[in-house]
């Protein structure tokens, strides 16, 4: 499996690239010292590969790193070695979606607006399967692979470092019997259970609310614990997805999310509505 960059490894790589630049050293200088190729040094700096401890110390010496910089590099090296939650990705998944899964695995919190279906992190197996059996024209793998991948993401909601997740869900989602009444009833009961978690907030956008936001589709805002890692927005669509990282645009999405949340049902009202719909399905 090819190495993939993670946010933690990128932070270490950025520091190494800065130290090399400040020391006026070339990729060739670093590669000659370690007796590796220049592309390997480049992969260190782009966050694709975490250097070994001995290689890191040799580079820091070459770059004349200060004691403070050595401490910072050591802390980042330790952090980069921590295993993120493993997420299964179906073959053929768009590159942007794979990047979204990696970001979600490393995030501190996520805020999502979902006008059409239950958010993936809150779906049951049967509901996820019903969703993925639809629209097979755009799927390159069996529905079971997509279901497994989607459900593997739910580990992020569990200890020891659970993701803080805030979902705004259109009331229409509660009424669309995806998979039939039994599947939908099970899904609604599971939503009720999820809403009881301390790290999960669910708010329903009632029909009576009228228009909200731009009414142009859903989005997810990814936030990180480190203030040096700016939030980003992921927009999902049938043929792939796209990232929004412009600071002003992300700010607009965050403002829109807060505005919609302030007009949505309270969490207790949302749970009551979810239970009513589940009861209606029997």
Automatic annotation (TrEMBL):
<dbReference type="Pfam" id="PF13560">
    <property type="entry name" value="HTH_31"/>
</dbReference>
<dbReference type="InterPro" id="IPR001387">
    <property type="entry name" value="Cro/C1-type_HTH"/>
</dbReference>
<dbReference type="InterPro" id="IPR010982">
    <property type="entry name" value="Lambda_DNA-bd_dom_sf"/>
</dbReference>
<protein>
    <submittedName>
        <fullName>Transcriptional regulator with XRE-family HTH domain</fullName>
    </submittedName>
</protein>
<feature type="domain" description="HTH cro/C1-type">
    <location>
        <begin position="16"/>
        <end position="70"/>
    </location>
</feature>
<dbReference type="GO" id="GO:0003677">
    <property type="term" value="F:DNA binding"/>
</dbReference>
<dbReference type="Pfam" id="PF19054">
    <property type="entry name" value="DUF5753"/>
</dbReference>
<dbReference type="InterPro" id="IPR043917">
    <property type="entry name" value="DUF5753"/>
</dbReference>
